[in-house]
Amino acid sequence: MKSNSSIVPFAFGVLLGAAAAAAGIRYLEQSQYVPPKEVLARIMKRSREEGQTQDGWIMDKPLPHSIDSVPMMLYKGGLTRYENGKPLQFRFVADAKSGALLRFDPVEN
After folding, report:
1. Structure pTM?
2. Most buried of the four, 2, 25, 49, 95, by CB within 10 Å?
């Protein structure tokens, strides 16, 4: 009869493998998206071409959404741009996979 001491290394290996698999899945899910800070930097750069821009923000995790029945993951954010010396608030939506800007709209007061 085998002792229980051979079960301990086996159980440890199974638990270690499960933890590694979970970490790998989490990494792959996150790595399929453009980092939100990079998306924000692109949008801020583009907005600066139109005028003085500051105070940008972006959500740190993409949200599931569908546009014209096409499921996608989106980042939402906003920024302040000055036009004629007055601050204007803008909101944007960007595709998390490509970083492409999908919407850029002024916030109505």
Report:
1. 0.69
2. 95
Q: Residue 55: which region, alpha, beta or left (left: phi > 0; alpha: psi -120 to 50)?
A: left
- Does residue 55 register a pLDDT over 90? no
Residue 63: count of CB within 10 angstroms of its CB:
12
Beta carbons within 10 angstroms of residue 96's beta carbon: 22
User: Given its phi and psi angles, is residue 85 left (phi above 0), alpha (psi -120 to 50 degrees) or beta?
Assistant: left
Q: CA separation (Å) from 25 to 28, 41, 95?
A: 5, 27, 21
For residue range 76-105, list pLDDT tens digits in order: 999 999 988 899 999 999 999 999 999 999
